[in-house]
Design goal:
The chain is mainly beta and 387 residues long. The chain folds into three domains: 83 residues, Sandwich (Immunoglobulin-like), CATH 2.60.40.10; 80 residues, Immunoglobulin-like; 148 residues, sav2460 like domains (Lipoxygenase-1, Sandwich), CATH 2.60.60.30. 9% of the residues lie in helices and 36% in strands. The chain is built from two helices and 23 strands. The protein binds calcium ion (CA) (2 copies). One calcium ion binds next to loops. It comes from candidate division WOR-3 bacterium. This is PKD domain-containing protein. It holds the Pfam family PKD. InterPro entries: Ig-like_fold, PKD_dom, PKD_dom_sf.
Length: 387
């Protein structure tokens, strides 16, 4: 009874007409079900890694890649470094982000770097195309040139020294100076191979110091130390120290001083007659520097009544005395008391700069400051000793 009723009921409720009327609803439900359970797609193949195409062993280099995920999932990337080593997965970043990781190689050779991506659901991409890096053995920079700079100076005044270094691999180089007084400079900033590096230093006590330079390349390899450049540093505690400095050209300016009569004789102190601090005329030129650009110092260890006349002569080299940027500084018992700059006027054939007169009894300095074709006082001929 129940069974019969059931069949009858079924026939009546689920005839074909009813079934077709439900079909669009069934199809829609199936579509929604399929959409929500859609298969996850892995990220696309990452871009070919980018980074340096050459480098040195045991140095870290950074490489980047990115990958899109078709579902817009976050992605992580890892790199295969071509030396049997594969990086850990990076952290997850939004689809398409640039992701960078670093690696160093311990041996020389050419290595192919590839990248792989995975999405948040763990689906992995194919490996990317390879990017080649050549790992070379770094060669140390060449030993720098001997520093160039002044060969004499005054205590507590800064002097600039220049050195050059080249690197066989054309790496950028940094230079440092050993100042010869126990002090070594910081490393300079990195400059292209072969650039001049200039650093300054002052010395606090008199003496002769030997300055040398060392180079370092970007990979950290250091050169040997250069040949030394000597600088004689003098104290300024003498009654008078007269410092002459100038720019690079002309290469040879000379300091000259004429003394008053000392024990019956006048003296002309210059490169050919350098005088003495301990004997007559108690006046000395510290150095005759014809290869670099000063400074030259004239020291008076005692003064005598009468007039000292100081002048500068352009002896040889290009350029002119009036474009030399020559400067004369007068120190009295350690203190700078007066300084002179060469007048910037057309020099013509005038190669002398008359700078000042000094009264040996009173210490009065009278500026002359004129450019002339003749020296301020006559050459003393055979009276000059030690020529
Ligand atoms: Ca995905
Ligand atoms: Ca190198």
């Amino acid at each position: 009874m129940d069974f019969l009723f059931g069949r009858k009921y079924f026939r009546r409720r689920y005839n074909m007409k009813t079934f077709f009327s439900f079909l669009p609803i069934l199809a829609l439900s199936l579509g929604i079900t399929l959409l929500s359970c859609q298969k996850n797609n892995p990220p696309d193949k990452p871009n070919t890694p980018s980074g340096p195409n050459s480098g040195y062993a045991n140095t870290l280099y950074s490489f980047s890649s990115s990958a899109q995920d078709p579902n817009g999932d976050s992605v992580a990337i890892r790199f295969s470094w071509g030396d049997g080593d594969t990086s850990d997965w990076s952290s997850f970043r939004p689809s398409g982000s640039t992701i960078s990781l670093s690696h160093s190689w311990s041996d020389t050779g050419t290595y192919l770097i590839t990248a792989q991506a995975k999405d948040k659901k763990g689906a992995k991409s194919e490996w990317s195309s390879g990017f080649a890096i050549q790992i070379r053995r770094n060669q140390s920079p060449n030993t720098p040139s001997s520093p160039s700079g002044p060969t004499s100076g005054i205590i507590n005044i800064s002097y600039t020294f220049t050195a050059y270094a080249t690197d066989p691999d054309s790496d950028s180089v940094s230079i440092r100076f050993d100042w010869g007084d126990g002090d070594t400079s910081e490393w300079s900033s990195y400059l292209p191979s072969g650039s001049a590096v200039a650093l300054s230093h002052s010395w606090s006590s008199p003496g002769t110091y030997y300055v040398k330079a060392q180079a370092k390349d970007v990979a950290g390899a250091t050169s040997g130390w250069s040949e030394e450049h000597g600088i004689r540093i003098i104290a300024t505690t003498y009654p008078y120290t007269i410092a002459l400095t100038w720019a690079k050209d002309p290469r040879d300016l000379d300091a000259h001083i004429w003394t008053p009569e000392i024990q019956g004789e006048e003296y002309h102190i210059y490169f050919a007659n350098q005088g003495s601090l301990n004997n007559v005329p108690y006046c000395s030129l510290d150095v005759d520097d014809i290869t670099s650009y000063g400074p030259e110092h004239i020291i008076l260890s005692q003064t005598f009544p009468g007039t000292y006349t100081y002048a500068v002569h352009h002896f040889s080299g290009d350029s002119t005395i009036t474009t030399s940027r020559a400067k004369v500084e007068v120190y009295h018992l350690g203190n700078l008391v007066q300084s002179f700059e060469v007048p910037r006027v057309p020099s013509g054939y005038r190669w002398w700069w008359h700078v000042f007169n000094l009264d040996g009894a009173t210490g009065t300095i009278t500026p002359l400051n004129q450019i002339d074709s003749l020296p301020p006082r006559p050459w003393l001929g055979e009276k000059e000793k030690n020529r």
